[in-house]
Fold these 3 entries.
Entry 1:
Amino acid sequence: MRKDTPEDAERCAVDELRNVEFPYLDASGQAYLDYAGAGLPPLSLVTGHARRVTGAVFGNPHSANPASLASTRAVAEARAAVLSFCNASDEDYAVVFTANATAAVRLVAEALPAGDRAPLVLLADNHNSALGMRRYAVGAGAPVVVVPLDADFRVRWEAVAACLDAFAAAHGPGLFVYPAQSNASGVRHPLSWVGAAPPRGPAAAGPGRAPARCGRWPGPGRRRRRRAWAARRAAAVA
């Protein structure tokens, strides 16, 4: 293939990557598209892992024998690599390995504090596993709000911020959960919300500007209702 333009060069690089790392696609005559469900392992990852586990002895990482210490070091290296990739500090974040994203969401849901001082704020287009957190929150007595989408399946940050401010003013700091990319519509919500949510400051919204579109999830046996509060502060994590 010619490389007259940057696009041509990029296409060549992708073709080379496919030939080197994923030769089994052409060998099997398949085109794989389900990367949202599961990614394909590159050949170098499979062969590198095979060399590692056949070239050393790895045991339970919670003991003090040589095999256990080797596993402990490997786990620590993996956690450090994840933090480095995410440009995150180990002073602020902890890496917990789970079977999949659904299992991770469940851990967070099970750890929601009891009582009405920790609201849960969700976007309407969260994955079902995230929306399922509502049951845990309601069971713990926590208030839940689902921020509705606009006609174009997007939501304005102003609407999200208003809901965060209002619920934090009424109940205290809570948890804000939203998808980086909706698996229902494909819409990508800004990653900047992660940093914008925690520092919601005082007087972020006054009584006349409190949210009119915060749809409170009714929970079992209650009707859906909409409420508005004067906002003072909010602290949420995504």
Note: The chain has a mean pLDDT of 77.
Entry 2:
Amino acid sequence: MRITVPSLPLGKGEFIVFAYVGDETSLALYDQKSDVRFRVESPVWRNGLMRVDIRWDVVG
């Protein structure tokens, strides 16, 4: 699977990407990753929750 995020409206800060794979009830966790870190330099600072549109693709 590949998940594409066409637009990520982040403000200034340091971020960690967390990804989880679980069942449809969210009770069984099959895998997790959190090894991607990145920093955004911007004059804008934002806080709060946001909804991000994504695209799922089957690869391989």
Note: The chain has a mean pLDDT of 90.
Entry 3:
Amino acid sequence: MHIKKIQLKKIRTFEDIELNLTNGIHLITGNNASGKTNLLESMHYLATTKSIQNRNDKNFISWKIMQESALPIGKISAHINTLDEIHEIDMMFSKPIKETIANDNEPSGKITKNFRLNGITKKASEIIGTLRAIYASPNDMQIILGTPAERRKYLDILISQYSKKYLKNLQKYNRIIRQRNSLLKQIKHIKKRYDELDYWDSELAIAASEIINLRSENINQLSARAKFHYEILDNKNKDLKISYRPALPQTFDTTKMIQIDKDYFIDILQKNRPVDLRQSSTVFGPHRDDINIDLSELAANAYGSRGQQKLITICMRLAEAHLSNQVTNDQPILLLDDILSEFDEEHRNYIVEHAANVEQVFLTSPDLSNVPKKLIDRSIQFNINDGNIKQN
């Protein structure tokens, strides 16, 4: 797949730009803070409907328009060519209508998002996956060094883009876990409504078992491909392994993990119900999962060097692109945000060589000094300056 055309209106540093794009490598240069990341993040926003950098949505609209307009509206639009179809995605950011007419209230800063797919209003979940994007940046180090929540988010972004089944069960699970935890708190205080837990346990178990099985399957495939890249890039012959650590009782052997079913998870919930009631929260389940990332059986976050950690993250991103293509038979777009300066020449050449296998690549860099010449010669070049973008 590839983006054929994209328009950004009142988005961050961009007042109103429109780009016609093709297959191939797009090399985007410009000074720091000129808008390179904003462009790539806008593309990723279309794929996932959320900010890759955890920005509040109000911060995605132009600061100037937020200050000057009573009804600020930002918009990202794109034409997407997939293997079989052409789609048009529109994503609109605006202040809530109630706030714009309630002049006596202080503005809340909240922003609403609305989506259209081929001219028809859709929910965010119906947009996800129309465009699939892999985004790599220096911030990827948090996949290794960050919290379990950050690694779960990493998994959710990856799998949700090519598995509607996963996305549907994830949304269902998150909704039910809130309801179950709320019920646990009520039971703790009023000592009633125990029978309702059986219903929510059953519903939770259906979604949880699907999520666990899909995470396990996808992590195994991701690990194998990342290991392939890492063996080539690391001349110290370290063995990379990415493994799933589901939040299940210690009696569950994750090294011999097989598919689990609804009944197995219901049994876990029922056996642990007294603990859940004391803590007013659900102890076991996908909302507490994690990933182990190891080099030669040692945790990469504790024992890996910074250079090794950087190599791991780019190997994971290249593996994601392969996995996304393998599942859908249609390549995602690849967004490489100022990552080449993180690597030496040999590693840069390898990254560029394998990135070029993807149908459409966007690569940002402050200048051309860290970009391999063979990439420069075959790329379509753009320069960003003061919110304007021009093709060289």
Note: The first helix runs from residue 36 to 48.
